[in-house]
Design brief:
The chain is an alpha/beta fold. The chain has a single domain (about 20-230), classed as Aldolase class I (TIM Barrel, Alpha-Beta Barrel). It is about 20% helix and about 20% strand. The chain is built from five helices and nine strands. It has helices spanning about 75-85, 105-110, 170-185, 205-215, 225-230; strands at about 25-35, 45-50, 70-75, 90-95, 115-120, 135-140, 165-170, 195, 220. A nine-stranded mixed beta sheet has the order 3-1-2-4-5-6-7-8-9. The longest helix has 14 residues, at about 170-185. It is globular. The relative contact order is 0.15. The structure holds iron/sulfur cluster (SF4).
Length: about 240
């Protein structure tokens, strides 16, 4: 993997917030170049820009290192850093990137610069003000995450066929919950829907069998980056 990160091993001081208004800066946990591991863009080279902070605490979270550690960047610097990778596909992720006031303006700047832009959001924050050129990948938290109470259900009404939904499943109870949600809301008619297993507690093969047996119109996502670089891979 070709990667460049700000905080792979040692915490960094956040430093001063640059003396800029909140909408002109972002706190960045890491930036790196890799293959998209999930979503309909799986397998494509992509620059991933991870912002610091998340209001959720999913029990299976593999990105806890992004909760606090980061460095303040101006939006201009973020654009320069992204450009240095010479890659047309960019994903803004977290943590929960939409907690930062600078995230939405940054997405606009990235779109204006001609990038194909994706946003990964945990599904607990309003997505309505996100630039419509951005492909929004919105999580729905299942009960096994411990965060299902914090789903912002009104986000589902804002999705278009340009967006995607992602559900991470910890066990069979999560699968049944997610299956019933897909059926009741006919989510596949809105946008692509992916089911992804928590690798520590649910076999991908088992999830595949359930999807096939129920003829459920969803995609199985097995997180390509973890197959290629291992379950301890950070920041993918
Ligand atoms: S929303 Fe994402 S980053 Fe936040 S706790 Fe859940 S899995 Fe981790």
């Amino acid at each position: 993997m070709i990667a460049r990160a700000l905080s792979m091993s040692q915490p960094r001081s956040a430093g001063p917030p640059l003396g800029l208004p909140a909408v002109q800066r972002v706190k960045v946990n890491e930036i790196f170049y890799s293959l998209q591991g999930e979503s309909t863009a799986v397998g494509r080279p992509c620059v991933l820009l991870r912002l610091t902070g998340c209001q959720m605490r999913c029990v299976w979270c593999d990105s806890e290192y992004s909760f606090y550690v980061g460095e303040w960047w101006s939006l201009d610097r973020a654009l320069r850093e992204v450009a240095s990778f010479d890659c047309s596909l960019v994903e803004l992720t977290g943590g929960e990137p939409l907690l930062q006031p600078g995230a939405r303006p940054l997405l606009v700047r990235l779109c204006d610069a001609g990038y194909e832009v994706m946003l990964e959001t945990g599904g607990g924050v309003d997505i309505s003000e996100v630039d419509p050129r951005v492909r929004r990948i919105v999580d729905v938290k299942c009960p096994g995450s411990g965060e299902a109470e914090n789903n912002r259900w009104s986000n589902l009404d804002l999705l278009t066929d340009h967006d995607e939904l992602k559900l991470v499943l910890a066990d069979e109870a999560d699968y049944r919950w997610a299956r019933d949600l897909v059926r009741q809301r006919q989510l596949e008619r809105i946008c692509p829907v992916s089911f992804s297993p928590v690798v520590e507690s649910l076999e991908g093969r088992k999830l595949a069998e359930w999807i096939l047996a129920d003829r459920l119109p969803v995609r199985l996502s097995l997180q390509l980056h973890k197959q290629l670089w291992g379950s301890q891979t950070r920041g993918c």
